[in-house]
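Listing S7. Sequence submitted for prediction.
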Amino acid sequence: MRIDMTKVLRVLGGIALFLAPAMAVAQTLPLHVDPGAREELVDPQTVPALRFLTTTDFPPFNYEDTDGALVGYNVDLAKAICGVLSARCTIQAWPWERAQQALADNQGDALIAGVAISGAAGERFDFSRIYLQLPARFVTARGEEGTFDPGIYRGRIGVREGSAHADLLADVRPDLEQMGYPTEFAALEALAEGEIGAVFADGMRASFWLNENADCCAFAGEPYFRPDYFGAGLSIAVPAGLDNVRTALNWALVRLARDGRMAELYLRWFPVGFY
């Protein structure tokens, strides 16, 4: 789930201080908590302190800004979790290739860095509830988004070569002419140049490009949530068996969602929503 930082960091330079209430009205917000579900009974005092681990290579979720400070959606979320739990909080950055071992070695209580729930990590750690999914989206030229129908579209469509998005598109629409590009951004630039009629890509990455190219292009159709292709979503890893921490994290995530603070974080970091 690592992301090419160059373009994203340039866009993030303006987003960190960006608050847009007018834009927020039109956005569909993530909702990963059932409003009617019964809340778990948790005593926050069972977790008086939380040692979060993260990395610096996953913008806009966790990365270093131009001053070398650790920032991002995940960093703000970790702080909010500590706040609702009234827990003493530390957030320490590790290299991606060492972060999971640091968690296994008890260097921290929770790893918030986009670790996949499946595979080796899924067998090694326990995980909190999902707090954000990363859907696929179609992008078209501005003005065409209202009439775009992926079921009947017949033009050329851009994808990132070798991506899960290319695989899904090939499986459900094998008749389409796919145009492969090295990155989502390259595919979107080709769309802007009129070389292709649409792009099918990771919605979160595309949202940063659209933030700079709003006059050109727009999301079209609905988001595609396919855990079988794109993974279950973002969650927080904890050492296996550390149930008090995992339960407290889940309780805090539910509280933050019901209080509207998860929505605030989403709007702060993603001014062009991808839901």
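Caption to Listing S7: primary sequence and predicted structure tokens for the chain studied. The mean pLDDT is 89. Residues 243-258 form the longest helix (16 residues).
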